[in-house]
Amino acid sequence: MIRAKLWFRCAAMHDPVTPIVVQPAVVGWEAKKRKVDLTIERAFKGDELVLRMKGWVTADVQKVIDVVKGHGFLKVLDDRDLVVET
After folding, report:
1. Do residues 48 and 71 make contact, with C-beta atoms less than 8 angstroms apart?
2. Using an 8 Å Cβ cutoff, are 68 and 84 in contact?
């Protein structure tokens, strides 16, 4: 198994950047007729994290996902770093 960090080029500053998970996604609900205090915290998958980079990086994120899937898969390592794993 080989792991490599995935780097993009920032659309604003044109320097190398890689997405990291600072805090897992928190999903909750809102109801019209009652109060719902339930929240679910879950980490992003590799594909989800790359898709959220759309517009922030110069690459077409969907094409990046398609190319990576041909050689391995995207994974969030240690609930923080985005890597390509083969």
Report:
1. no
2. yes
When divided into structural domains, the chain yields a total of: 1
Put simply, whether the predicted model's pTM sits higher than 0.85 gets the answer no
19 class by beta-carbon count within 10 Å (0-12 exposed, 13-18 middle, 19+ buried): buried
Using CA atoms, how far residue 59 sits from 16, 23, 24, 49, 69, in Å, is 12, 24, 24, 14, 16
Q: Which of 27, 42, 32 is nearest to 79 (CA)?
A: 42
pLDDT digits (tens, 9 = 90+) for 30-52: 888 898 888 888 888 999 999 99
- Per-residue model confidence as pLDDT tens digits over 12-30: 999 999 999 988 888 888 8
The domain of 54 spans 3-85
CB atoms within 10 A of CB 60: 11
